[in-house]
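> example.struct
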């Protein structure tokens, strides 16, 4: 199993190499004009952009280990974006930002359920896309620290925020960057309800939008990975009209 940005530990040299790669972006989209436009904006903001015009080459490039994040269009010929995401997630937790058609909630939800970190609806202002890219990268970039790393624990669940590492019953738990950020906040507030607005600010880096189901989908994925308590209840409880609560064990 490949180590992921959300779970792998970093030494000093690895941190430097990782930070050098943080500017490498892969854009998978068959719309050449849009790719040129987005590439120009991303390049202007200090990113190095590689493009792929079809799903097959996009998967190969995404798994090459050369990129910090993938921007992935859902509507691709032959191998569509959702299948590309599925194949990436089979081997890697590389952050993925989906591009979906405006108003197509089904694609948004499907992408999040498959492990996308966030999504942007098209057409979108390039500045908005750049802001979303930076928000995702901030979540996965570990700081260089010399002190003893902070450790959070809740029962058999252990999480090291600065290393982006989490263990369940002593074994590494593989999470996407967004799932990791959600779990970190829930663990910091274990036993207390955390609002969806707080979760969106912390995990997605943006205010909670009306009718946005992103947080619910990511929490659902977290629940599946954490399993249930001995009494059969979910470890993450829904607090009606507020948000979610991690049960303190």
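> example.seq
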């Amino acid at each position: 199993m490949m180590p992921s940005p959300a779970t792998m530990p970093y030494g000093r040299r690895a941190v430097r190499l990782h930070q050098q790669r943080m500017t490498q972006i892969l854009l998978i989209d068959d719309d050449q004009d849009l790719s040129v436009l987005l590439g120009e904006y991303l390049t202007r903001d200090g990113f190095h952009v590689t493009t792929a015009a079809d799903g097959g080459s996009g998967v190969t490039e995404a798994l090459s280990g050369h990129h910090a994040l993938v921007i992935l269009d859902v509507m691709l010929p032959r191998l569509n974006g959702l299948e590309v995401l599925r194949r990436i997630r089979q081997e890697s937790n590389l952050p993925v930002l989906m591009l979906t058609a405006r108003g197509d909630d089904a694609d948004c939800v499907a992408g999040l359920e498959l492990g996308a970190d966030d999504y942007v609806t098209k057409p979108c202002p390039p500045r908005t896309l750049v802001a979303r890219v930076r928000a995702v990268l901030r979540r996965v970039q570990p700081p260089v620290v010399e002190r003893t790393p902070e450790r959070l624990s809740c029962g058999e669940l252990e999480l090291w925020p600065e290393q982006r590492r989490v263990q369940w019953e002593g074994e590494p738990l593989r999470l996407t960057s967004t799932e990791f950020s959600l779990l970190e906040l829930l663990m910091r507030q274990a036993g207390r309800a955390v609002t969806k607005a707080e979760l969106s600010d912390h995990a997605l880096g943006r205010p909670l939008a009306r009718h946005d189901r992103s947080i619910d989908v990511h929490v659902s994925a977290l629940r599946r990975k954490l399993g249930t308590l001995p009494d059969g209840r979910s470890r993450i409880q829904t607090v009606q009209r507020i948000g979610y609560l991690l049960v303190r064990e």
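> remarks
Residues 100 and 121 are 5 Å apart (CA to CA).
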